[in-house]
Design a protein that fits this description.
355 residues, 9 helices, coiled coil (chains A, B, C, D, E), seven-stranded mixed β-sheet, ion transport (chains A, B, C, D, E), homopentamer, cobalt ion binding (chains A, B, C, D, E), Beta Polymerase, domain 2, alpha+beta
Chain lengths: 355, 355, 355, 355, 355
């Protein structure tokens, strides 16, 4: 399972820089392009068959959001690149799903890579590659497949809720990133539940199934989340700080706020990491405690019965001259002695708090 | 319980930035507004029903402190925001109880978020969200519910004790923060006691209840405290350093002092963290020591009686021709041999320091 | 095996700085020089017997790539150094295979050291020393032996694929470095597989062979990879940032991209490091779990049969007056009692989840 | 004992900033004021009853050192503060024994807090709070009680040894700090001895007393030392770097030297910390080794005698037809077989290196 | 043995700053002064009885290297200090063998402290204190005793090999430092061998001697090496960067190279540190594995023979009416049953992979 992150590395080794090669697993996703065009007064929403239709949308009076789903359609992405004059390395990174979050500044546009994280129905962590190009009056977002966290944004555009319709394209970019980061809190919550579950298994239930595997799995997940979330701090921080004509001052407050959220997620990730690493130690003490318990039972049984069996063995000997054997009440005296030893040992164990 | 910190994340996901949504648990707190208005000569103290009454208080000749309890009353907070021209993101953060300590600088006011920490009557760590807005001649503080650490400040205003009545609103902000940080020392002390208690349980008492759970709990608490306290260092440091018309030079000395206190708390938190992490190792050695003790008892008993039982078994055999059985004093010789073996083994164990 | 990295240190101790002494193990490699000379329109490819032939290649109209294989031929390297006016310390570092990745800036050329990593057919990690000199219109690369990761570049030059034929010598240097870094992803993948294998061995198979050795081996490998990869971050970062006439602006975008790739590799290395360190803990719990299992079997057997054997011992005694022995059904009653005890203990173990 | 550091926190919570409240334990120390007044030619030494007498000492021609013992006499400290115009926060910190080392710069004076560390006669680590005010031609030092490390300085002033009489008040401050830091090396040595002792106990002696407690104690001590020593690095570094009229250039060389010493102490503290943390692991292996030894004894005894006892049991059976019982030498053959088994097992254990 | 580093601290506590007090252990070393005087054309080499003879050597046309062995001869060092106008603190540090590596810049000279490391014939790590003063046309080096790593340099001066005779005094200083650092690689190699040896002991040999002690020793050694090597990075880095008339540009390339070497040593030290810390964990698993093995033997023996002994006990009972005892082939049937049980258990253990 460690392999999961790397399956596609091999395919791209040796390719020329700037080659557009989709490295993800969803190689048969349908192409799905949706376009929003809005300003303070009006808005328009369309689903497109071909990307060319979107190119006419760009105007000075509207903000345009082009959302492209299906990174396997590299031809379409190349067309977009040509139309907007994007650098070949950007096109490569749009489809390179292994790429870490980053921000690239060009004269006329900004390029942001980030990661959408969720648990699929099998409870497996999925990391989806999202990239955004911010231009003068447009934002183009790229996703691996449809189904995303942008529905609240769509609804805010449609219903003219919040500030989105009166702000520029930089605010739109912020909103998209904010939606992705907001969703991280879901993830954090699930991770918290998983840790709690494991702790409960460790403490309360007595069954013996090995949870080392589950802990190792959690470790891997938190490490993958960390890798997706941590670089984003730097991305947003830089986005807030850079002097670029596309980022207006009013938006910086929002980016600062976004930065605070990512820090909050990161802190949670670090805390959970500490907790998960601690689980192994806890498990170890649990095992040792169980063994202690087992050993005590063994020791109590052995310590009581081994001496008694010895005594019985004595009077099972065939010496011709064992006077005790001939006493009338020898057998009963014997039992009395056994009982005294037995009670003495029980008292001893009670004192040692073994019983 | 890991979930405790995150219960409210889900509800806010998808909301537009700047939406005022209370994320805490005290959704039915009463609204409680108190106002202090003072200068060198006079002071006035009032409890208000409606926030509007407070708006008339602001004058150039007095310092006004408005203390709002009940973050669930988002309407009231919105009104305050409108009256004082606060940024929507600030209003969002006032009621976002999950937000980490921070400072935001605006042209006409400063916004500070911090955390009040205490253990409730059940011994559970409670983290209460406090935020303060510092304006020209006023401070507005927001809390989740009444009951706070500000009583000494109230009394100092009433009795004109200390410097509070002769200093500006920035000193008032400092005093509020100082009161919160002062209270951290209480917390530190309780944590120290808890660690000591666990250590005593580890060393002195012999009962077997599993303290892994308690250690894990302590870990979680110290991590939560850490998260609430550590960002405050940066906040106070920045507050001391920024060039802002609202912070006068005289107050900076006090902020420096406050910074020292937070560093001191942080150092204690780090030390306790180290101690708590060490507890698990200590517990592990304690378990192993106990097992060693158990194993020794078992080994001593088994090592003494198994050979003796073997000997008894020998003379319990029914061979027709076992000469020893026919000796007159065979039985007594047998006992003598047993005693010699017994004493020999005892001496052996003494030498090995097992007894 | 820890020695492997250091075998050659001793030989160079005491040599004057700038002495050209090959420190690697491939002391009998054949000398193999290949030269590429190309521009937008034409390209030429040659294999040389003597390095002198290459010196005539340098012209203003072409880019020349001289690839020297066989660092043991120090004479040849000295000749190159003399021809191109390279600093003696550079020549020393070209053949010092122990040297870590670095970049040295001189007025007329840049010198870069990096490491090619691969697993040989025995599965052993091999670290090959590569150094490049970037000049005005040429790049000279030095390797320990032929067989490298540059084939895709050769083919791109031949077929005029990608941008390589229209860009300068700095782009060629970038391409060489990019090929080396691309290959790291292979390595990462193999390491991922190895970790996964060990985890599977830990979890699924029950055989007892000690995997401590394998874990220790993995540790050593990841540490060596780390040492080869991490300094490269700084090298590429500096290459991107420096103001040097040899690095044109257009190439910087590509260097930034290369930097992102190295960061990605580094992150993977760190994650694998964490995973490998965790394996030891996992192994420990696995051992303890097995011991628990063993102890339970022992305890169950002993706890059942020791008391029963004691009872049998009782009725094997030779007291003259043991009434039970004379009961007609004494033997059958005895068996019944045994069975009851037996069943009682089984129930007890079931309850304790030991069975 | 974790509580020891914090006992006094509670008392100061809620006090107004600048309140002079002694937080230490030596609440009944006698007041003891000593004054040194010296220049190149002359020196004077006096013990004072009242602080007022010291105020007349300050002249431009002499350096004055006022050493105040007894921080519980807050009235006296207030008087000093008033006379020299010290900031209220400084007075608070002079008597706040919990305060960490720091330096505060004011226009006319510098304020330094540091910690004197020693082990008392019970071997307990004592941390004594020392603060110094450096003025134009005077230094005032404050201690909790008399008995300090300044005797060599007193003697150097009296005997005009070293440079002290020809240098300014900044050099005097340096000398005081140097004396305190010099004494840390004593501490370091005692810690080294303690660690060595514990290691010896772990390796050589076989007695079973639990040293977890001692290790935990050492941990606590090294953490407390760390907290007292580490901030001093920053203090001295700043003292060397600041532009302040009171620190002349000549003294900076000495401060640099002092800084080197503190770094050296810090490094030792870090190394000891590593060693102490390692002790727990060592102890764990020691316990496990002992258990191994115990288990081996048990296993050897059980493995030898259980089969032999079984054989004896066989021939203790009462089957009517057991032919061996009737052999004339049956008993002797039996013993021979036992001996063979016994020797075989001994050989087996020798081979396994268990004996 | 932890004490070894600190034995001399006590003696210097309380001494005035600048006091020349030798803190090392070689208090009876002979004084041994050697002088090299050379330029491009000529060289001269002399062994001196008195240091005064060396003072006439300084000329503008030659480079002079004065090598002083025997730090216990503090009088001589004082004379040198007076002649060259060295600061008293420098003289103190020359003989303070506890001092960490550092560089001090003065107007007319540079002062460098570093550490020569080697293992003596008993295999004990020795740290020898070396300090160098770099002046206009001379270098003075100070060592604790003769016997050093400078022989290659002597031979290079004599034979005019390398660049040494044509470069300035700064290059000579570099050469001395380079020789010391070169020697670290020897050390690194020995440490590598020691680790490998311990690993082999852990894996292959089965004897039971406790290697905790050896691991702890290695830890201490690597920590001491670390302390001697790590500060040197900063020293050389600063030496390369400072603007000082004594360091010419040409030498900076060599210092950069030296810096690379120290980084390489440091990386190795860090890796070995990681490996050594890991050894303890490995040892722990080895112990646990051994215990597992022991426990299995015990469990197998006990599980096989305890039930069989029980059965034998049954038929050793003296009930009057045990029908089996009267069967003609009862005894043989009994053995058959035993055999079946025996084989069944063997099969069971095979399945569980315990055999």
């Amino acid at each position: 399972m460690a392999r999961k992150d790397n399956t596609s590395y091999k395919k791209t080794i040796g390719l020329a820089p700037g080659t557009i090669f989709y490295t993800g697993e969803k190689t048969s996703s349908d192409l799905y392009i949706e376009v929003f065009k809005y300003n303070k007064e009006t808005y328009e929403e369309k689903e497109l068959d071909a990307i060319e239709a979107a190119f006419s949308y760009n105007t000075a009076t509207h903000i345009t959001w082009i959302n492209v789903n299906g990174l396997n359609h590299t031809k379409v992405i190349e067309k977009i690149g040509n139309h907007y004059g994007l650098h070949p390395l950007i096109l490569e990174d749009i489809v390179n799903t292994q790429h870490r979050p980053k921000i690239d500044e060009y004269e006329n546009y900004l390029f942001v890579v980030l990661k959408m994280l969720y648990f699929d129905k099998n409870g497996e962590l999925v990391i989806e590659h999202i990239s955004c190009v911010l231009g003068d009056s447009f934002v183009i977002s790229f996703q691996e497949s449809d189904g995303d966290v942008f529905d609240p944004i769509r609804s805010r555009i449609r219903n003219n809720k919040g500030r989105i319709r009166i702000m520029g394209s930089d605010y739109l970019l912020y909103t998209l990133m904010d939606a992705v980061v907001d969703n991280y809190f879901n993830l954090i919550e699930v991770m918290g539940d998983k840790i709690e579950e494991l702790e409960d298994e460790l403490f309360e239930k007595k069954d013996d199934n090995d949870i080392t595997y589950d802990i190792q799995n959690l470790k891997r997940e938190i490490l993958r989340i960390r890798r997706a979330v941590f670089p984003l701090r730097e991305v947003v921080n830089r986005l807030e700080k850079i002097e670029h004509k596309l980022i207006v001052k009013k938006t910086r407050f929002y980016l600062r706020d976004l930065y605070d959220h990512i820090i909050q997620v990161s802190e949670n990730v670090e805390i959970y990491r500490d907790m998960i690493w601690g689980l192994m130690d806890m498990y170890m003490t649990t095992i040792s405690n169980k063994m202690n318990e087992v050993m005590k039972v063994l020791t109590i049984i052995a310590t009581i019965f081994i001496p008694l069996t010895f005594l019985a063995g004595i009077y099972g000997m065939n010496f011709e001259n064992i006077p005790e054997l001939k006493y009338k009440y020898g057998y009963y005296i014997f039992w009395t002695v056994l009982l005294i030893i037995f009670i003495g040992l029980i008292v001893y164990f009670k004192r040692r708090k073994w019983l």
